[in-house]
Fold this protein.
Amino acid sequence: MSLLNYQVIIPARKGSKRFPGKNKTHLAGKPLFQHSIEFALKEGIPASQIWINSDDDELLELAKDFDVNVYRREEALADDLTSTAAVLRDQVVFFQNKNIACDAVILLQVTNPLRPTELLSKSLELFNSSDRSSLCTFSRLNKKFGTIDKDYFFPKNYLPGQRMQDLEPLFFENGLLYITKIDLLLQEEKIIGDDVFPMVIDHIYAQVDIDEPDDLILAEYLIENYINETF
């Protein structure tokens, strides 16, 4: 199988009701969006194939310091209800109109800055050798969970008293990395297809999803004490 042409897209919307200015806030001394750019560069992706997608003019200007591409998102694709798939699809159409080679896109979410070394290179190796339409990173869900209705709790994945080690293995989409062929985006406006390749990674990297200011505290702690990466 011939290698596909990839473009990395890092969406960084301006608005955030719970955390204004989130994508530009600092983590380990760097703006949050910078971690995703540096990850892609360290994994061997040329700056010419990395795109910051945003409606935030200030953030787009900051991104130019890294010699990556910037794509200004239309306001219609920058509200709370806009799906990430719609954002990616819009940029894929742009690639096609500009004759930019792109068979698949790599999505790096700014809010998931902790990623293990070689995650992208290993994911691309697996994806290139498969015939899947998408790849997504997952982590093991070591939780007993259920629902609450009318002040009663109903377990979903266990029986009361069941040991954790006896639970059925379940996994959750951790948001660290996605690879999607453009046909899936254009035809179905989906990031994950029914044939998604599951890339399972260490749970520690999935602990952080920056949605509120307090999430930065955990991220800083993990970087300083557990994750041996250069941040």
In short: The longest strand covers residues 171-181.
